[in-house]
Structures are given as C-alpha cells and as structure tokens.
Protein 1
Amino acid sequence: MAMVKQPVESAGEDVNCCARQTGDRSGSGSETPETASERVNRRWNEILQETRVTQTGVQILFGFLLSVAFTPTFRELGTLDRAIFVTTVVLGASATGSLIAPVSIHRFLSGQRMKDEVVEAAGRLMMCGMVLLALTIGCTLLLILRFVIPGILAEVLVGGVMLWFGLCWYVLPLRLRRRANRTPRTDDA
C-alpha cells in the first residue's frame, strides 16, 4: 500500500513544480515567483537543452567538413575556395569549442557554489557559439554553392540565407524581448 502512495505523491509534486515553471500553479493564470535558486536551476536546465541541440548540429557539420578535405574533388579547388574551406573549418572548430565549453566549466566548478557564475558564462558561450555556428553554416553553404552554381548567384543566395539566420536567430528574439519589456505586467495576464 505504501508503494502505491509514494508514486502518486511524487507525481503531484512534479505537477506543482512544472506548473510553477509555466506560471499556472492553481489554474488561475497567476504566476508564482521563482526563488533565486529555482531561477538559476531553470536557466541551467534550459542551457543544457539548448546545448544538446546546437552541439549535435555543429558536430555533424564539422564532421562533414573534415571529410571534404579527403575527397578527390578537393584537389580541384582554387585558392579562394580553399581559403573559404579553411575559414569554415576554423569557424566550425571554434563553434564546437564554444558550445561544449559549458560542460567543461560545469565539471570544473561543480560543487563550488558558483551556479550563478556558471549559468552566466554558459549563456555567453552559447551566444558566441550560435554566432560561430551561423558563420560556419554560411561559409559551408558558400563553399558548396560556389562549386555547384557558377557566377555571383552563390554569393547572393548565401547572403539571403545569412540574412534569414540573422532575422530568425537574433532580430526576432530581440524584438520579442523589447515588446515584452514594454508590455505592463499585471496579475491578470
């Protein structure tokens, strides 16, 4: 009997925890303020999830780039294309380092009661890694399109894609943040 009660109580606690994070604990629509500890733990968990997504993408792209140098077609690349390739590989390696760094920081500082500092540094490294990842993707696309499409069309297409990345990854979030800061917060919202 006690074994049956334990999971039910635990599940209730999880629901309350999740309800607190979504801001709807009692179903009334009011937000329950987070403690400083809850906020830093939530931010750390969010960074971990973001890191998982970006690390996978950058590692696949970086692996692809490393394999390109060993193909027969690579020998046919001109000086400019080789420079683009080298730049792309360096950007990919830098993005990988930046996106994996939060794991290393956490491992070195775990148990040191520095979670606020770890979360702050990890957030900055994630932003840096995202910029480097966008540049890596842009350079990779440029290298591929220059090989496939003759003329300036490759550069125009890459410029359009990079503009799209800038809009989706940076302009939209900043606009949403600015709009949220201008909107007065009430208990009814």
Protein 2
Amino acid sequence: MSIWWSLHLRREAASVPLARRFLLGTMESAGVDPDISFDLSLALSEACANAVEHGGAHKDQGEVAENWESWEEPSGAACGQYRVTAYLDGEKCRIEVADSGPGFPARRALRTAAQQHETEQPYESKQQYPPQYADYPPLTAEDGRGLCLIEELADHVHFGNRPGRGGAVVSFDKVLKWREGALLMVS
C-alpha cells in the first residue's frame, strides 16, 4: 500500500503549518518513526516558507487567483498559490513543493550529490557533501538557512525550475523507518 496526496495552497503564512500538520498526520497514521516524521515535516516547512515568501510572480497588481485551474497557466495568474505533493510507500517518502515565482537563478549549475562526488574530491559521508545549491548564510543573517536545512534533513534533494512555466520546484526524499506494526511497512 502507498499514500499519495497533493495540496494547492495560497501563498499565505498560515498555509505552512497546515501543510506540515497534514504531512505529520499522514505519517503518524501510516506508522512512520517520529524522528523521520519530524525531519521531513521540518524540511517541508522550510520549502513551503520559501514558496510563500519567494514563490509569486512579481506583479504591479496584488491580485490572487481564485480559480484553481489557473495553476497550469504560465501567465502568473497563479501567483497566489503553490502546490505540495507527497508520496509515501514502503521504502521512502518523496515530497515536492512547486510555486509560480521567478524560480531559482540560472547562473548556478544545479548538481546532484553524485555529480559532485564524481567531479570533486571524494567524501566519506552525506554530511561531508557541500550543499547542492544553497550557500550557507553568514552567522549574523536573519534568514537564508531554509535550503541548507532541507539538504541536511533529507536523503536526496533537487532544486530546479518548472520547465516552460516558470517557478521553483524543491523536491526531496528520505528513506522511511517504521514503528512496530506500521500500516505501510515493507513486506
């Protein structure tokens, strides 16, 4: 058995804890280990907070799309919303947060940890890999740690842009651990 869900949320601060609680409830019901649930919910909160803060088209008018069908339009009519999708199966949880904002800057090459491993000196553990996209902010910075946190909390992370439509996509996954008697345990 697996669980899949997708939420279309308004770019409002109140949507962040809503998405987090939805994920935590799903994982608790499925029987996921609480430590894994916490890590994924924190990473999801950071991704959602980025979508709320940076995920809208920069427009002169402050209009918000009322029609959820407008999500697929490249026009920026969906600038007031973002999408969270989560998939839990017997082995891992994969989460994607997509918005309709300007996306990540193209000036940086996005590389997976495996590509970094091939082109740079070898690392013995995941914690030794440099961040895929995020630069660590100065210690005195008041923000800018979200992408770094996601990279530390998840097993695999990808930061990219929605092809042809604009907008950022943050996707990450983590291998699941289960409580005894969990509903979705690997057979």
Protein 3
Amino acid sequence: MSDEYGTPDTPAGSRDTSTGTAGTPTDSTGGRPGSPVGAGPRPESLRFFGTTWVDHDRGPRGYTVRRVGAAVGSLAAVAVSCLVLRFAYEGIAIADLGSFVTLLVVVMFTICTALAFRHTWEGFSKRPDPDRQASLRGLLAVGFVGSLLAYFFRTLTEAPGERLHREEYETARTQYERRSTRRTGNPSKKRRRG
C-alpha cells in the first residue's frame, strides 16, 4: 500500500501479473490527492522523482529541485566517466598495442556511446522490449556515457520518462472513468430484454 494515499502498489501502465496483460491497470489502484481510496489508477513512480511528476505545477513537492539535481548529477557522472575513459586510452597508448588496436577501441566506444544514447532516448518515449533490452545489455554497458548524456539532456525539459508515464496514466484514468460511469447508472432504469 502507498503511504501517501493509502492505495495499492500497482502503478498505472504496469504489467498486471494476475491477467498477464501489459498496459492495463487494475481498478483497485488509487488516484489523485483528495480522491477516495480505490478511485482510479495510481501513477507510476519514476527513478529520482517518485510521483512528483504528476502534479508538479500544483505545488512545491520538490520536482524542480529533483530535476536540477538529476541534471547536475548526470553531467558530473559524464565528466567523471570521460576522465576514466581518458585514463583507459592513455593506458592503451602506454601499452603500445599499435595504432590499429587503438583506433578499434576508440571507434568501438564511439559507436557504443551513440547507440546507447539513441536507445536510452527512445526509452523515454516508448517502453523498450525486455528481450531486446537484455540482448543490448553489454552494448549499453560499454556506451554508458551515451546513456548518461541522454538522461542529462532529457532532464533539461522534463523528468526522464515523464511524457510516456503521463500518457499511460491519463489513458488509464480515462479508461477507469469510462468504466466507472457505465457502472454508476441506475439499474432499475435499464431495459430488460425479453
């Protein structure tokens, strides 16, 4: 149960393990502040942001501070990572493995960084395929600087993944409201088929 709203822990847009369907929230999850318990889907928590992304324009819940912190943190991680990669490059140069090997390592890190940036950036707007994510794990580990850069650039405009989660949350709320209005009609006024 969520401590803040007293709602179950199944977020909107997450996989419902009881039915095995993705993107179909259950009716028993909580809603926005002030709504009764079990009044709709609960927003999914984002890393470093929690659920502050839902109503970040309604009051001080730390959303802006978290965005600034995430941007500064990811940029600092990029700087430290580049320093580590420079030491690795100097180690290869000192080992005198030859210009071909040095060029190969540089090209590998460049390509992996670009692919990791693209993959991470696309992951902010659509859910990645778990099988593809598992197969790209090594590439993403080598190109970690690209992932950090994508995270930094996304925090300049929004919490990373906010747009995707907001779309899923709004869709889940709309579906829930449609279902609940169908159920609230007066049963005695319904026609009986004969």
Protein 4
Amino acid sequence: MTPTPERLSDHTGKPRRPVAMPLSYPAARLGMAFHEAGHAVLALAYDMHVVTSEVINWTAEGGGWAVTGSTVVQARETDAWQFAAQCAAGTLAQVQYLLVHGLWTPERAAACAAVHDRELAVDALASQGFRLGRNHVPDGGKSWGMVRGMARRKVAYRWREIRTVAYALNERDVLTGEEIAALTGLVNPPFVGGAA
C-alpha cells in the first residue's frame, strides 16, 4: 500500500524528492535499512530518545517498487552538532553498506544523498541559533562536510551495532527504540514530556 503523502514528506511538509537507486529490490531495501540504522544507532550513542525506526516499501505506479525509511527521535537538550551528525549518519551508513557489499558505484553513492536529512539539520540548528553551512563554513558555525566527518568517525566506531540493527530492521520492517537498545547494548534515554 502506498504511504500517505505525510509519510513521504520532509520536516517542512514538502514531498521528499524521489531518487532512483540502481539496485535490485532486496539490495536497495537492505541499503535503506542501513540508512535508518545509522540514524537510530547514532541517536542512541548521542543520548537521544529513539521512538521508532522503519523501512517503508510499496508497489509504485507502473508496477515497479519504491522504498524509503523513517527514524523518529526526540532530541531535547542534545548537542546541536551531535544532532546534525545523527542526521548525516543515514547516508554514510548506506554508502558504507554499498562499499562492504561490493555494490558501490558513483551513481549509487550519489543516490544515497538524502538532501532532506541535511535540510532538517540546517533548519533545526538555525532555530537554535547555530549556523550550519551547506557548502561553506559560516562564521561561528560548521559546514555540512565537517558534520559528515564527525558522523563518519562515529559510524565507523558503531558499525557493528549499525549492521545488527540494519539486518533486524530489514527482517521486521519496524523496530522500537527499546528493541534497538536491546540489540545494541546502548541505552534509549526516557522520552521527555507527554506521549511519544
């Protein structure tokens, strides 16, 4: 079943730009599981509460297939740069998956870009007074490249946990933050406030 437009929208409510991933369905789905696992594991590693992480797939118009994902985190009182690194981690984990499985090509790596993750980081940090430049280092801030470097180190350090979560996510479609914590040995901090 095709997801609702809200599930396929970015943080501003605009539809996320679809990107063709030149892989078989099973390989693309597992790649998306690695993407979402990257977000979820770094969120836990940076003391953010993870609500859920999931892989969403459906039959597209014309009989093809489509796959995306979603990881919902609560990031209150989180270091701004760690939040940004968590946003960058999905793409990095997905590209690492391509490398490890012998699937990397420039075209496939470019398809992992997830511009909506970068834009979420830029907007969330701006709302807190932090300057995150897309292609430059703003005065008193950092560039997206710097944040990606920070995330790359953490993704490499947490690769075992990311891999474990990705395979479980690929098998089950949806994992709660508590399930991810149990799989990784990381702590899912309590949700702050009302119902998740």
